[in-house]
Design brief:
This protein is of the alpha/beta class. It has a single domain, classed as TIM Barrel. Helix content is 53%, strand content 16%. The chain has eleven helices and eight strands. The longest helix is centred in the last third of the chain and has 17 residues, at 197-213. It is globular and about 70 Å long.
Length: 221
């Protein structure tokens, strides 16, 4: 399963990329605004760092505007930039046109399996179901991922399931067990995946015992 970082903070992206554990990045207008930087500049820098899919979102509400903005986004980096459009009728129309032109498209704000089916038929490269926001309404966000997985496998759609709005390690783990192709999560949630108290306890015990030997490792003389 691929893991994407859901952020426009270039320093956080660099730290995760240095570990070799992230495969791409997702952004949205809110994250770009938080960065306080020029859209084109920050997206271009993210592409240079990650060298994997980077979603940049359109802001128009009509298909013509989304298509125009999508083409502009792809000019930033025609290898790694992915055009992000909302799951509306106009967004689906834009997805179809952009995908026909060979542009990868991430259809976002998906909250039902029916929506995911239509996005796949329109040629979406990624579908982004928002599990956390469904959980907020006391619905089962992961059930949506299961339903989409079944539908896509039934009909051999190429669209990749990108589990979005993941709030923590549990969402990421559940998505992996179901078979989501990708999960995108805030850097904090990805860092939390590394943490376990028994790892810390075990490492401390090993180092304490090693110190008692008075030996050094890998040093000459």
């Amino acid at each position: 399963m691929d893991i994407f970082a859901d952020t426009a903070d270039i320093e956080e992206i660099k730290k995760l990329n240095d570990l070799g554990i992230i495969d791409g990045v997702t952004t949205n207008p809110t994250l770009i605004a938080k960065s306080g930087r020029d859209l084109r500049e920050v997206l271009g820098e993210i592409c240079d760092v990650v060298r994997g899919p980077v979603s940049g979102e359109t802001v128009s509400t009509d298909a013509e505007g989304m298509i125009r903005e999508g083409r502009w986004l792809r000019e930033i980096d025609d290898t790694y930039m992915v055009v992000k459009v909302p799951l509306t009728a106009e967004g689906i129309k834009a997805c179809y046109q952009l995908s026909q032109e060979g542009h990868p498209v991430n259809v976002t704000l998906c909250f039902s399996a029916n929506q995911a089916l239509l996005a796949a038929k329109a040629g979406a490269t990624f579908i982004s179901p928002f599990v956390g926001r469904l959980d907020d309404l006391s619905l089962e966000g992961m059930q949506l991922i299961e339903d989409i997985r079944i539908i896509y496998e039934n009909y051999e759609f190429d669209t990749r399931i990108l589990t979005a709005s993941a709030r923590g390690p549990k969402h990421i783990l559940d998505a992996a067990k179901i078979g989501s192709d990708v999960v995108t999560a805030p850097p904090k949630a990805i860092w939390q995946m590394l943490q376990h108290p028994l790892t810390d306890k075990g490492l401390k015990a090993f180092l304490d015992d090693w110190e008692k030997t008075g030996q050094t490792l890998g040093q000459v003389g």
